[in-house]
Amino acid sequence: LLLIEGEAGIGKTLLLRTILDETAGLIPQVVSGAADEFDQRLPFATLHSCLQPWEHLGGQAAKVLELIRDGSAEYPVIEAFLTLVEEWCVASPVVVAVDDLHWADPASILLLRRLGKVAGQLPLLLAATVRSGSSRRDVRALADSWRDDVASIQLAPLPDLAVEQLVRHLAGGKPGPALWD
Fold first, then answer.
1. 68 closest CA partner among 59, 56, 80
2. Distance between CA atoms of residues 29 and 7, nearest Å
3. Do residues 26 and 89 make contact, with C-beta atoms less than 8 angstroms apart?
4. What whole-number distance in Å separates Cα of residue 95 and Cα of residue 30?
5. Model confidence over 37-49: pLDDT tens digits?
6. Residues 13-56: pLDDT tens digits?
7. Alpha-carbon gap, residue 133 to 140, rounded angstroms
8. Distance of alpha carbon 54 from alpha carbon 63, whole angstroms
């Protein structure tokens, strides 16, 4: 389990993409998507964003997407997705990555909680980004349920000295007062 936390715009998405790019040669099965603020009321919208690129393969991925689109209850969708991940893990290691977990719909949060419980038993990397201080109880509960087994990366703003050194390196000069305002 990997949880990347930080304030808005600090680079969580870029770090997750970099990690996924680096693992691409090692782990052939990468399932990734992003939660969307405006899809929070659509059950399994986040899971749908992760699986949609796999729909053309048919089989279990198409079955899960069909269950989502048909408005199936949570349990059948969750069980079908867990079966899919287990099948993929039999063939090779798998990465499931979700960006912007703080916008995920409650059904996808429930699914990720269940997936987190079995992640340690499978060749599976479950990774997510979340905005620090998310006020949603279900998102905090999910992050807390991962805490014991998670590698957590907390992104924080660079100290002023590091910013000054970076600007000097990139721009070849000392940052002016307008940059600091």
1. 80
2. 29
3. no
4. 5
5. 999 999 999 999 9
6. 999 999 999 988 889 889 999 999 999 999 999 999 999 988 77
7. 9
8. 11
